[in-house]
């Protein structure tokens, strides 16, 4: 615990209490208020793009400016525009049917803000994974506290400064601090808590939330497979998998974690994949497009995976010479087995194991024998096989003949299943996650229900039973 931790914990409690008081004073913000919040958020992000790019690059040691634009700033701005466009439709109460036996009456569902929402942000996409859930929480009318990762201090401090320019702390507050602050944050009695990060930490967050019966959305990750079919052109599959695996140097929760390739296509895929990666990144050293591993601890973890795999019989194919400044060379791993850590744990880096298979049934059985992943990627143009993959596997989301890009679709829900998470957000699903859909049954002066009040045994009650209980 650092010397500043007790002060940070006291501030945490104070901010939470102030947000609770502010929410209770205005529990149903108007559409105009929510649009004003979202407009201000969009403006502050759009006008501070260079500073955001610089802060994220400082945290990584080197982060491709284009990757920050494409994977963080662009989807954040698009998500805000989408929410503003559809907010009125989302807020509108929905009419529901009332059965004949309960007439005359009406029913509707109204969507109320939950209250104070907590969002725990990971280090790999520190802007987008803060702003994405923040959009849904604000659109739904909530107060929000964001806990930034201690691994991205520059980004956390900048976001705290920028959001303080447009929101008071009792509306949106950015929390900085160490692991102890993060644990205390998860123990606050939020009305909803969203966590993005590693599965083991997700379990701890869920335990902490359970003490307050706080509902949680967990976005965790896991080992997302890519399946290369027997008929797809290898150049097509290799290039698209390479893009998804190399983005942010593989430090992406939905990055392809391993590739299933037919036995007789392994050599062809390796050649096509090497060509694709080296075309996208001709060099690593001093290449502005290739992102560094976030810190020395993560680099050591990935090197341990390589050493463990090699010691247990894997064949390692580096696609580049060793680079400096934590720019880890992309490596293919062949002849892998289940005893290797790289096949047991989420890779989260530029290492790609290749697993051979015989037919599609075998590939699907391999996927289904393992924990359900956050994403699944299938490469093949046969529509019948595509449908089999969709129907016979479970995952948080799917791309057919692409990687990553399903996450950027504002009109698709994003979320895991089982060990890869629970709950979902983005777009309308984000609004619903951070809202209470409250059922309302309305009856006015005339009360036909008196016909079924006691004492029982009347003839009209027997008639009602005959008409409606069958």
From TrEMBL:
It comes from the Bacteria. One of its GO terms (molecular function) is aldehyde dehydrogenase (NAD+) activity. PROSITE patterns: ALDEHYDE_DEHYDR_GLU. One of its GO terms (biological process) is aldehyde metabolic process. Gene3D superfamilies: Aldehyde Dehydrogenase, Chain A, domain 1, Aldehyde Dehydrogenase, Chain A, domain 2. The keyword NAD applies. Residues 31-439 form the Aldehyde dehydrogenase domain. One of its GO terms (cellular component) is cytoplasm. The active site is at 219, 253. The keyword Membrane does not apply. Keywords: NAD, Oxidoreductase. Belongs to the aldehyde dehydrogenase family. This is Aldehyde dehydrogenase. It comes from Stutzerimonas stutzeri (Pseudomonas stutzeri).
């Amino acid at each position: 615990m650092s010397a500043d931790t007790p002060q940070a914990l006291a501030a945490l409690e104070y901010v939470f209490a102030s947000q609770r008081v502010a929410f209770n004073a205005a529990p149903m913000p108007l559409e105009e208020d929510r649009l004003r919040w979202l407009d201000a958020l969009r403006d502050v992000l759009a006008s501070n793009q260079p500073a955001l790019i610089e802060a994220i690059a400082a945290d990584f040691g080197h982060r491709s400016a284009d990757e920050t634009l494409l994977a963080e700033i662009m989807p954040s701005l698009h998500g805000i525009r989408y929410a503003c466009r559809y907010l009125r439709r989302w807020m509108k109460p929905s009419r529901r049917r009332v059965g004949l036996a309960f007439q005359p009456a009406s029913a509707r569902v109204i969507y109320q803000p939950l209250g104070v929402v907590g969002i725990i942000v990971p280090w790999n996409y520190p802007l987008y994974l803060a702003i994405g859930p923040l959009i849904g929480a604000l659109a739904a009318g909530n107060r929000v506290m964001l806990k930034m990762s201690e691994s991205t201090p520059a980004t956390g401090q900048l976001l705290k400064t920028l959001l303080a320019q447009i929101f008071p702390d009792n509306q949106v507050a950015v929390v900085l601090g160490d692991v102890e602050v993060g644990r205390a944050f998860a123990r606050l009695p939020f009305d909803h808590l969203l966590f993005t990060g590693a599965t083991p930490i997700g379990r701890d967050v869920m335990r902490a939330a359970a003490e307050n019966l706080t509902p949680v959305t967990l976005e965790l990750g896991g080992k997302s497979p890519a399946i290369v079919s027997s008929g797809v052109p290898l150049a097509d599959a290799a290039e698209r998998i390479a893009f998804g695996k190399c983005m942010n140097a593989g430090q992406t929760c939905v990055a392809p974690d391993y590739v299933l390739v037919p036995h007789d296509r392994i050599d062809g895929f390796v050649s096509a994949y090497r060509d694709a990666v080296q075309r996208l990144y001709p060099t690593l050293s001093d290449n502005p497009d290739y992102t560094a591993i976030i810190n020395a601890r993560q680099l050591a973890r990935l090197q341990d995976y390589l050493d463990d795999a090699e010691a247990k019989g894997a064949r390692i194919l580096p696609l580049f010479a060793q680079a400096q400044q934590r720019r880890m060379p992309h490596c293919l791993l062949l002849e892998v087995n289940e005893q290797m850590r790289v096949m047991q744990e989420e890779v989260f880096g530029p290492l790609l194991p290749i697993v051979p298979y015989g037919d599609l049934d075998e590939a699907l059985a391999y996927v289904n024998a393992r924990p359900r992943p956050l994403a699944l990627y299938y490469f093949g143009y046969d529509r019948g096989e595509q449908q089999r993959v969709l129907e016979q596997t479970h995952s948080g989301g799917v791309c057919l003949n692409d990687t990553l890009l399903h996450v950027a679709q504002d009109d698709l829900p994003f979320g895991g299943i089982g060990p890869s998470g629970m709950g979902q957000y983005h777009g309308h699903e984000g609004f619903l996650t951070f809202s209470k859909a409250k059922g309302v049954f309305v009856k006015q002066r005339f009360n036909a229900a008196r016909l079924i009040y006691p004492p029982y045994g009347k003839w009209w009650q027997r008639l009602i039973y005959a008409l409606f209980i069958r």
